[in-house]
Design goal:
2 copies of one chain form a homodimer. Chain A is α/β, with parallel strands linked by helices and 410 residues long. Helix content of chain A is 40%, strand content 22%. Chain A is built from 14 helices and 16 strands. The longest helix of chain A is centred in the first third of the chain and has 17 residues. The mean pLDDT of chain A is 95. Chains A and B meet through strand 2, helix 10, helix 13, strand 12 and strand 15 of A and strand 2, helix 10, helix 13, strand 12 and strand 15 of B.
Chain lengths: 410, 410
């Protein structure tokens, strides 16, 4: 199949998927969960091949991300079973209005259509994303990393087999080459949303090469502002957690802003250095740097306004936190910092779909439209308006013979 | 000011605007409404200049759209006063979750940032769009049609004067040349949403020339499917209304699909012809045509499936209606037709922000992401996540010392 045929087939299969009942879609997800456990041997054997090919070529970190274990498969299966039990997201009524006597309007949630998800080495993304697409009634095309080709093929084969007989396997397509991705990115008439999960460079490349809306983020330049009134133990704990818990994550802190009147700045620096963090401070620092490792920028700021101005100027609108004991300051920061996630006395690392209780996460969006911050199933839905009348026409309204009531129902 | 300076100033002024209280923003809108009535003479004099310049150059239809009257100004002012009374759209809490003991998350509505609205000859769009931007806390840059240059300048001058002293006049910018629009469309780091209101060609040109998300629609190819069981009087009334009430509107019907077993097809054709509508039927018809005048395509279809397949293939996903007395058929049509608006026994002409009770309309979106169908104030908002903790870090959760509760609040 050409990429276009694949996308068109995914769209058609998506229509079949959304026509299933909630119970049927739930059973389908449970079959996907079961196959990950029942056919673990197949998946692990394929993963073994990828790992052998990667040996001596990939970094230790990449090898670790590539590695699939029985434990990982079981926790993936658990996650998918949780997803199978969540309230039906499709067809949820968001609003009901009586427009006029006998003429009633409702706005309902509805699948987006076809998603293109491009992810790098971590193959456990494949079953996660596939389950989210199934839950939300969307067709899906996946492109995984070439390092994980065998694992992805095995996972894809098992998952699409589990769709039968309810939904054709084309509901979830897999492509393996960059050329195919290039072709898919041109299909803005068939594909509705692209979700790139990978390096900043990869995300930016995709944003620059498609007219399809892209959900995701290129940069994660997150700040912690330590206010004058911050409790020193709390400031230290949050700053250390935000930087060191997982420095490569997009929600890790890259810059700590310290109020000029905060009395424990040196102790805070010592704590960071003690945790192995290199500090960059002074006139030559590029505050747009996403270190992604045990390093961060430090800046002394005059006051809250200066901290907010710094964040708006150098941040990426991802996640920014204030540590303060002053409720007025906290409120002002929460109100005024215009980022997807704004935190008071909490680590930036909480910015995550699972931690936010969204069930699962397709990614974190720094886009301002459609979905913002951690995105779960809801970000894969759109809405439709359904109007039910009795033969109503607009002419009598224009003529003044009938009047709109615009009464909210329920 | 350069276009970039103008956009940056609009963003900063937007921050001032959203910092106002609900009462202050309400008063500001009422001042805008009042100036349209109190300074009507200034506006009408400017409009007179535009009309004089257009005489013999513009079509009668364009001249009518350009013409501002006292009545129009009064009804604009009324609409803005209604908007000033609506519930505060900014900062509305959409969701509140306790993530863990003492750690609470909320999702709130928030202004998008800066809007760029490009509209053609109708100058009454200017006060409407300006009020929607004020209500939703967004900065705005407007580009009006050159035919209405004097009217737009007068309206813009009065409205920005009414912002003082609460908000700097840069909150609402006006540009007059195409070159400036070209510059603005490149500013995807400062402008958050482009809303083109005008011809299909204009909308498509903009979509092709910017990376900023575009809210709107190029085509409005709307269908009415007359099912076998449709009551003939109802079918006739809806089809006539959908086609003839305002043939140039995007929600006007372009194609009527007639079930092969509908017994009154000829009478329906006669009724359309009687209303002055030219019918195009047969193998050579291009079903992708948006006539925009008293003309439409006609096609006989085998059944509901064929009607839906036709709509998905040739439609623009705007508004499609079924006329049927069969509730099963109606339900299937409403469920399966994947358009922004899907109607049963009602004219496609109801697809409109005012008729839907949204208060006002910035446009109708056929995009599947962000906002779909008629878009009111809500489409000009995004969301933010606010998390309030007590010094919380993720490490104890990873270590199993603390557990997420994920309890929905309220």
């Amino acid at each position: 199949m050409t990429p276009r045929e694949q996308a068109v087939a995914a769209r058609a299969a998506g229509h079949r998927l959304r026509a299933l009942s909630t119970a049927q879609r739930g059973r389908l997800l449970r079959r996907v969960a079961s196959t990950l456990e029942a056919d673990a041997a197949t998946i692990l054997a394929a993963n073994e091949q990828d790992l052998r090919r990667g040996e001596g070529v990939l970094s230790d970190a990449l090898m670790a991300r590539l590695h699939i274990t029985i434990d990982k498969l079981e926790s993936l299966a658990d996650g998918i079973r949780t997803l199978s039990e969540m309230d039906e997201p499709i067809g949820r009524v968001l609003r009901r209005t009586e427009l006029a006597e006998g003429l009633s309007l409702r706005e309902i949630t509805s699948p987006l259509g076809v998603l293109l998800v491009i992810f790098e080495s971590r193959p456990d993304a494949l079953p996660q994303v596939a389950s989210l697409a199934l839950r939300s009634g969307n067709g899906l095309i996946l492109k995984g990393g070439s390092e994980a080709a065998e694992t992805n093929r095995a996972l894809h084969g098992l998952i699409t087999a589990a769709l039968r007989p309810d939904v054709p396997p084309e509901a979830i397509g897999l492509v393996e080459t960059r050329a195919e991705v290039g072709d898919l990115l041109a299909l803005d008439d068939v594909i509705d949303l692209v979700i790139p999960r990978g390096s900043n460079a990869m995300v930016r490349h995709i944003q620059d090469n498609t007219r399809i809306p892209v959900l995701g983020h290129a940069d994660g330049i997150c700040h912690v502002f330590v206010d004058a009134s911050a409790e020193p133990e709390m400031a230290e704990a949050i700053v250390i957690d935000a930087k060191t818990d997982y420095p490569a994550a997009c929600n890790a802190m890259e810059t700590v802003l310290i109020h000029q009147s905060y009395p424990h700045g040196d102790a805070l620096r010592d704590a960071l250095r003690g945790a192995g963090v290199s500090l960059f401070e002074g006139p030559d620092v590029d505050f747009g740097t996403e270190y992604g490792e045990l390093a961060c920028s430090v800046r002394i700021v005059d006051d809250l306004d200066a901290a907010i101005a710094h964040i708006h100027r150098h941040g990426s609108g991802h996640t920014d936190a204030i540590v303060t004991a002053d409720p007025v300051c906290a409120e002002a920061f929460l109100d005024r910092v215009d980022s997807a996630c704004v935190f008071h006395n909490a680590s930036t690392r909480f910015a995550d779909g699972y931690r936010f209780g969204l069930g699962a996460e397709v990614g974190i969006s720094t886009s301002r439209i459609h979905a913002r911050g951690p995105v779960g199933v809801e970000g894969l839905l759109t809405t439709r308006w359904q109007l039910v009348g009795q033969g109503d026409t607009v002419a009598p309204f224009s003529a003044g013979a009938r009047r709109f009531t615009h009464r909210a129902l329920e």
